[in-house]
From TrEMBL, chains A, B:
Family per record: Belongs to the iron-containing alcohol dehydrogenase family.
Pfam families xrefs: ADH_Fe_C (PF25137), Fe-ADH (PF00465)
Segments forming domain Fe-containing alcohol dehydrogenase-like C-terminal: 193-385
Protein name: Iron-containing alcohol dehydrogenase
Organism: Oceanispirochaeta crateris
Length: 387, 387
């Protein structure tokens, strides 16, 4: 066994109705910038109003920043930080999916630190500077079950000018506390439920085959995949099934804990490159498209790991192929087996460029693979995945 | 699934050689009170000197308090707090087994809070007062694999005048960081290795059948029991087997995380009562003696949980009895199948008194059982365990 450090200081309030903790728990400040998406759901379903009311009950003022896109962009990080500064906000609330919570984390960095967000980014055209001023405290309230960002110290932002989608983070970026209330997830449409659920699944699966996996991250990952295999089809079939939503919410939080204790691998680099060029491609959909050929590549590298993943998904699990079958069956049961890159405007002629972008912008995740992939390996995986 | 809160803010440095983190990591103060046992091992094996040297390298002074008994007592909490106050120590290092680390936590409470330690204790003759002053930061360096206290916010101290052995703790008692270095565990004699390993095992097993268990605590518990079933006999057979020691150290840390996310059950109340009257009885030995009749009692209450425990221990796991067989086999493989209460001076005539003490001093853990035990149930379990 390898040495490891374990650190997940975030307090997680989990379960139906746990949103009410917002009115009872000690808050990390007196005025919150609430970061939400540009879509209507946070307002339409009353979640924003509820959060504002609960904060008010807890003697906390708030300001809303409501511009976040599904693939969140750097310009909104800068704009949100400006607003927080002008309004004297002393902590940031990310309310919504991974895009809002990740943007909240990135805004938290930029409120007190000078310059441009990309000054601090490692990879791509990022300057890799060290930040010197404090990162504001972040509270995460997740209304989707996909990124696990409520339980990890990472944020992924796209530099829209450079077409670079890059992760960033560290100890200072763990939310002070997170609220995972499945009642806020009952309104997610089936297709998004599937994409987000698979994102969580691949955080767990990649974290399980990553070379820095530990027995603790393994425990989270196997539990997460078991729950997704059992409950994701149910949550897609009936979005009001609170038990299924709750189990998937838990699987997602567990997959965030995998992110905190292990790592994603190069599958994520490839997907980030795909959606950096094609922002309309949902992250989870990109991962689903890549997954069969990606995990097939690793089936000879760490077959024993794929067998264990097959078992946790309820398969017999005698060969690595059993995992591929379980994965394809789950995609089928979730109605996402027929996704095609070409439907999102991706062209076969782009594959070399996409593979280069994956290495260039998120090469770090390639170091997490148990066997290092070459540029040609990446091209081959994406080519095999292309439909 | 029930709602739950998850919070384990302790940073854990895990693995052979991780003790060196003490010279590199940011410390929570400038002068440490190092709490160690009254035995010779911390000095004889050079661990104390190493810790002092590493702290010094990290510009930190230290003072040693070396009186802790295997069942740590209240008078040493008070004496250690006095010493820390006189010496202006601003954090406490617990170096050793659970007794030293637990005492470190309790001392951390009493350095700035007035009165007697038992003023703050709930249960028994404790006054249940709220403390108002800060608890000093604690660093845990574990040299045994038994209590998991390095990853939980709990401490167990005996009031030697009242013959009450009671747990206490909460969020303020999580170590700031813990070092789990299996190289410091190579010198533990076989019998202690067994007793401590079983203590860890029962933290996991009780936490798994506790009614507040969550899927996260389940993941820790099953992983912990799997590791103990596989590696404890090896660590006992060859104490220098670093891989076995490492796996058992991890199992122990995982069982501490079970303590932080679920709870012990009344088996622990019963054992605390046994060793409150018979301080020479090692805690792990007491648990081993109680375990067969205790888990037999619960085999009809939550058979599906016992079956899963049997499976994680490598058994087929078709009935709850398979867990009892796996438990007895593990005791046999570890050379502790023949332990007798009578060998430690416990008499059958004491059982009523012991059962009363268990309810009186640690009744709270009875609330964690899936089926509430009566006084007579407790008497029956201890009677069935008596040899």
């Amino acid at each position: 066994m390898k040495n490891f450090n374990y650190y997940i200081p975030t307090r997680i309030f989990f379960g139906p109705g746990s949103i009410k903790e917002l009115s009872q728990t000690k808050l990390p400040g007196n005025k919150a910038l609430i970061v939400i998406s540009a879509g209507q759901s946070m307002k339409k379903f009353g979640y924003l109003q509820r959060v504002q009311d609960l904060l008010k009950t807890n003697n906390c003022e708030s300001v809303v920043f409501d511009k976040i896109l599904p693939n969140p962009v750097k310009s909104h990080v800068m704009e949100g930080a400006d607003l927080a500064r002008r309004e004297n906000c002393d902590f940031i609330v990310g309310l919504g999916g991974g895009s809002s919570i990740d943007t909240a984390k990135s805004i938290a960095l930029m409120v007190k630190n000078p310059g441009d967000y990309w000054d601090y980014i490692h990879g791509g055209s990022g300057q890799g500077k060290l930040y010197k001023e404090a990162v504001l405290p972040v509270v995460a309230i997740t209304t989707t079950a996909g990124t696990g960002t409520e339980a990890d110290p990472w944020t992924v932002i796209t530099n829209e000018e450079k077409q670079e989608k890059i992760g960033f983070g560290g100890d200072d970026f763990f939310p002070v506390f997170s609220i995972v209330d499945p009642e806020l997830m009952l309104s997610i449409p089936p297709e998004l439920t599937a994409f987000q659920g698979f994102d969580a699944f691949f955080h767990a699966a990649e974290g399980y085959i990553a070379k820095i996996a530990t027995p603790i991250s393994d425990a989270y990952a196997l539990q997460s995949m078991a729950l997704i295999a059992e409950y994701l089809p149910k949550a897609i079939k009936n979005g009001k099934d609170l038990e299924a939503r709750t189990q998937i919410a838990l699987a997602n939080t567990l997959s965030g804990m995998v992110e905190s204790t292990s790592s994603c691998t190069s599958e994520h680099s490839m997907e980030h490159a795909l959606s950096a060029y094609h922002p309309s491609l949902p992250h989870g959909a990109g991962l689903i498209m890549l997954s069969e050929s990606y995990f097939r590549h690793f089936s000879s590298v760490c077959p024993e790991r794929l067998i264990k993943m097959a078992k946790t998904m309820g398969k017999e699990g005698e060969t690595a192929d059993d995992f591929i079958s379980a994965l394809l069956k789950l995609q089928n049961d979730c109605g996402v087996a027929g996704l095609k890159m070409s439907d999102y405007g991706i062209q076969k002629s782009e594959i070399h460029k996409i593979a280069e972008n994956a290495h260039h912008t998120m090469g770090g995740l390639y170091d997490m693979d148990r066997q290092t992939l070459s540029h040609q390996d990446t091209v081959d995986i994406i080519t095999a995945a292309f439909k």
